[in-house]
Write a structure and sequence with these properties.
- By secondary structure, the protein is an alpha+beta fold.
- It has two domains: 32 residues; 151 residues, Ubiquitin-like (UB roll).
- 38% of the residues lie in helices and 12% in strands.
- The chain has a five-stranded mixed beta sheet with strand order 2-1-5-3-4, sandwiched between helices.
- A hairpin with a 2-residue loop joins strand 1 and strand 2.
- The longest helix has 24 residues.
- The protein is elongated and about 50 Å long.
- It starts with a helix and ends with a helix.
Length: 213
């Protein structure tokens, strides 16, 4: 075979690619690899007609409507969720505190139809058709509840972690048939633990409000 024929043939007489043919094949393959993703990115986005953008119901949850501080909240929750966790994590009312999570400290006290309960021991799914009140619902910085104001005036708090539960318990307690002495108040508030030991000032706060009524 003549030399000019070998140059035009993509293979040599030994059946191998020539240097020129090899480089041309590699260049074409490299260009195709680089251009393909670019072309894909420049193509208009295609949205499947059947795609549903609505938020799906999470498997294992139940729909409930809770009435909290005068407002209705339609939410999806785990049927095992406590009222405490639902208030804090789903409705985002974080004034109710999680202390022991076993019904022993009272930090999570809220009102259900005016009665004080430990929200860590109550299932949220069982609180339908009732009125739930949290610390956010009895008064705020611009309009303090008398009990909140008494706790401020009598230094009924130190670190403040138990304070919302103490106040919620005290607000309900003054409407309950307890005696008038400090001993009676201590017994009535015994379900609310203050790790800072501010008990004398808490009793003074409660008694100040009781004298007002």
């Amino acid at each position: 075979m003549a030399s000019d024929e070998r140059e035009s043939d993509p293979k040599t007489s030994l059946g191998r690619l020539t240097r020129r043919s090899f480089l041309s094949h590699v260049g074409a393959a490299t260009a195709a690899t680089a251009i393909a993703p670019l072309a894909h990115s420049l193509a208009p986005a295609q949205t499947p007609a059947s795609e549903n953008f609505s938020t799906p119901t999470l498997p294992g949850t139940v729909g409930v409507t809770l009435r909290v501080n005068g407002q209705s909240h339609a939410i999806q929750i785990d049927p095992r969720a406590t009222l405490l966790d639902t208030l804090r994590e789903t409705i985002h009312l974080t004034g109710t505190k999680k202390g022991c999570d076993h019904g022993q400290c009272g930090a999570c006290t809220v009102h259900v139809n005016g009665r004080r309960i430990n929200s860590c021991l109550a299932l949220a799914a069982m609180q339908l058709n009732v009125e739930i009140t949290t610390i956010e619902g009895i008064g705020g910085p611009e309009n303090l509840h008398p009990m909140q104001n008494a706790f401020v005036e009598h230094d009924g708090l130190q670190c403040g972690y138990c304070t919302s539960g103490q106040i919620m318990s005290a607000v309900a307690m003054v409407k309950e048939p307890w005696g008038k002495t400090d001993v009676d108040v201590r017994e009535a508030m015994s379900g609310n633990i203050c790790r800072c030991g501010a008990y004398p000032n808490i009793v003074a706060s409660v008694q100040a409000v009781r004298r007002m009524s």
